[in-house]
Amino acid sequence: MQDKLFIDGKWEKPRKGGTIDVINPATEEVICKAGAGTSNDVDHAVKAARIAFDSGPWPKLTGAERARYLRAIAGKIDERRHALARLEVTNNGKPLPEAVWDIDDAAGCFNYYAGLAEELDNNAEEPIAVADTRFSSKAVREPLGVVGAITPWNYPLLMVAWKVAPALAAGCTIVLKPSELTPLTALELGRIAEEIDLPPGVLNIVTGTGPDAGEPLTEHPLVDKLAFTGSVPTGRKVMMAGAQDIKNISLELGGKSPFVVFADSDIEKAVEWIMFGIFWNQGQVCSATSRVLIEEPIYDAVLKRLTEEAAKIKIGNGLDEGTLLGPIVSKGQYEKILGAIERARQDGVTVAAGGGRPAGFNSGYFIEPTVLTDMTTDSFVWREEIFGPVVCVKPFNDEEEAIRLANDSRFGLAAAVMSEDRARCERVARALRAGIVWINCSQPTFIEAPWGGYKQSGIGRELGRWGLANYLEVKQITSFDADEPWGWYIKG
Ligand code: NAD
Q1: What is the mean pLDDT of residues 141-152?
Q2: Which of 48, 96, 185, 333 has the most CB atoms in a 10 Å sphere around its CB?
Q3: DSSP 8-state assignment for residue 325
Q4: Mean pLDDT score of the chain, rounded to an integer?
Q5: What is the 3-state secondary structure (H, E, C) of 160-217?
Q6: pLDDT at residue number 197
């Protein structure tokens, strides 16, 4: 089944018949082979989605009717949460409790957008007061059309849910291209769609590589919208491909997010949140707070406790009890991260903790929690997203310097600030140029709140009502209600 694509409600082999090895990053073993979809498969899937949108029942259903499907999907995810979580660990490497959390969040996302679909029945139309009272006008929100959704490997099912749930709630139809590294839970979503009798063509899943399956999706003329999550270089390509037909585009891209810790912070709380901000999911988190700025008076104390605690994190197979740091997702990412640490060493950066493969691991893409210090602000590790358990730590002297250093980045996805002084937290939160700012914490994410980046971290917002708006067009309907003639050409 994993080597098939889900198109128009049916499972079919890729037309060219290719497969992609799916690897368990903890053991480096091939788990199974996934279908290598290509442009012919994408074309077939997009046409199925187009027909389902243009002449199928889906966009014409009421929000409440669509909500029933969304809740059924949430129910099925919930029913198999343990199996899905284990599959996520086997394919992505993350510790099991994190995977369980992701699966619960994915189910929560479908339930949440079911609620917003129901609300659409009452709020899809908004009367507009116009100055000329002979007219009445209203704004009507309608489904945007066929969505091409492309997702990354760091939260395989959750990133899919963030796109599929609001798109379905809005009444769109979808072609989903999950990451070739982690396609398994997305394929399970296809099975769930089949089980709940989602109308054919509403959700299509084409696995395959970026160039072979992703690119044709971004270029397909029958796709109305591209919803992409991934790296900045790929986001740029997606935007350029979409520009050809002026497609609607939303991009959730990378980051190099700062965490500003003021001297009045509790040192133990600061260390715990710094660690959660960078070691959770092996640091493979778009919003990871990978640049930590610590006010000078507590710099040494925080660094000491951080290096001590980082060295204690239990590394292992995500399925093993007590594991808090699993392997990196793939050999390619593993080598990229080790390369970045090596480059830091050559640039004269101090490796204060970790910095390599943990002792005793003969297989699997494991990297120690790594703390770097003494880097310049133009060094590679300070400026570029490493996407691994690697944190850069730097001292600062005052609030103004902290804000300047924090904002000195081409990214602007997230930021965090910690202080006992609430007014200062609020002030700094406003000054930080980022789409998400955490106060006295880092990373907790809520389905109800907007998610997305400033600057090169992206365009648009996912989650909350902003996530639904991504998949809706706004139509103006204006009516001339007066009995009198218009009287421009034909005078009474
Ligand atoms: P990636 O850009 O390599 O790949 C993302 C997806 O794009 C994959 O499905 C891939 O197959 C596809 N792709 C690759 N080339 C393509 C092309 N030319 N045309 C169309 N599709 C193509 O990213 P990744 O390594 O999978 O994920 C890591 C990146 O994602 C990091 O930069 C991270 O910050 C970012 N990310 C951002 C968010 C967010 O919400 N902002 C969330 C998760 C991950």
Answers
A1: 98
A2: 185
A3: B
A4: 98
A5: HHHHHHHHHHHCCEEEEECCCCCCHHHHHHHHHHHHCCCCCCCEEECCCCHHHHHHHH
A6: 98
As given in the structure block, the two tokens for residue 441 are: 């914490």
Q: Within 10 A of 449 (CB to CB), how many other CB atoms are there?
A: 12
Minimal-distance CA residue to ligand 1 atom 42: 286
Q: Residue 283's Cα: distance from chain center in Å?
A: 14
Q: Tell me the H-state helices in 204-295.
A: 215-219, 232-243, 267-279
Number of the ligand 1 atom closest to the C-alpha atom of 286: 34
Please indicate whether residue 210, judged by its CB atom, sits closer than 6 Å to ligand 1. Answer: yes
- For residue 376, pLDDT over 80 is answered with yes
Long-range contacts: 461-464, Cβ < 8 Å, 24+?
Answer: 461/250, 461/435, 462/162, 462/163, 462/166, 462/250, 462/252, 463/162
C-alpha to C-alpha distance for 266 and 384, rounded to whole angstroms: 29
Ligand 1 centre and the CA of 252: distance in Å? 9
Digit-coded pLDDT (tens) for 161-210: 999 999 999 999 999 999 999 999 999 999 999 999 999 999 999 999 99
Site to probe by mutation for ligand 1, drawn from 105, 109, 231 as the one with most ligand atoms within 8 Å of Cβ, is 231
> Annotated catalytic residue: which of 98, 188, 219, 252?
252
Is 252 a known active-site residue? yes
Question: Which atom of ligand 1 sits closest to the CA of residue 232?
Answer: 32
Q: Which atom of ligand 1 is nearest to the CA of 458?
A: 41
pLDDT in tens, 296-329: 999 999 999 999 999 999 999 999 999 999 999 9
Is there an atom of ligand 1 within 6 Å of 413 CB?
A: yes
Residue type at position 298: I
Which pLDDT value is given to residue 2?
87
Residue 233 CA to ligand 1 center (angstroms) comes to: 9
Whether 226 lines ligand 1, by a CB cut-off of 6 Å, is no
Question: What is the spatial distance between Cα 63 and Cα 252, in angstroms, rounded to a whole number?
Answer: 26
- What is the pLDDT at residue 307? 98
Where do we find the tokens 């080790």? 338
Q: Is the pLDDT of residue 463 over 90?
A: yes
The pLDDT value given to residue 491: 87
User: For the segment 204-252, what is each residue's pLDDT rounded down to a tens digit?
Assistant: 999 999 999 999 999 999 999 999 999 999 999 999 999 999 999 999 9
Residue linked to tokens 């090169």: 456
DSSP single-letter state for residue 396: E
Question: How far is ligand 1, taken at its centre, from the CA of residue 179, in Å?
Answer: 8
The rounded Å distance from CA 157 to ligand 1 centre is 14
